[in-house]
Amino acid sequence: MRPRMHKLKLVPNSPVYYEFIRTLRNDERVQPGFIQQVQITPEEQHAYMEKYGQYYHVCLCDSQPAGYVGVIDHDIRVATHPDYQKKGVGKFMVQEIMKFFPDAYAKIKVDNHASLKLFTSAGFKTKYYILEKEPEQE
Length: 138
Ligand SMILES: CC(C)(COP(=O)(O)OP(=O)(O)OC[C@H]1O[C@@H](n2cnc3c(N)ncnc32)[C@H](O)[C@@H]1OP(=O)(O)O)[C@@H](O)C(=O)NCCC(=O)NCCS
What we know:
Layout: E1 8-12, H1 18-26, H2 42-52, E2 56-61, E3 64-72, E4 75-80, H3 89-100, H4 113-121
Antiparallel strand pairs: 1-2, 2-3, 3-4
């Protein structure tokens, strides 16, 4: 890892970050990393955040939102804005959030090499495989 050139800070989520989280989650450059492909509307985001926003944090890089991390039912969801990727933001977020949720785990798509590298680098080990049945062919 290159030395960090920016000041990183993990802050609790609040309504000022709802749009940042929504547009990052919807961003076609990060979307393929997630298991579910979604396009979240502002209204849906508001309702979701009212319920689960307390489980999210935002990473500020020199005071600018650079990524988010959330843990719901021990399951970590994390994204770094493409402008800030590969600078240590993801690893910083994972390491910080583990202080609040030490039992959290990551469920990673098999082709998501960036995420696998991130969690491996943060000290996670592969413990399980999840196998799903392919839909039957007609
Ligand atoms: C996965 C993701 C969060 C990584 O964020 P990031 O801020 O770029 O990660 P970091 O800069 O902290 O990198 C952590 C490690 O992963 C490596 N890494 C990051 N992106 C990588 C990539 N695309 N390919 C290979 N390695 C990568 C880094 O080199 C670093 O390794 P090191 O600690 O051994 O030097 C980011 O790529 C992302 O937002 N992806 C889309 C959403 C997603 O997939 N979320 C995870 C769902 S489980």
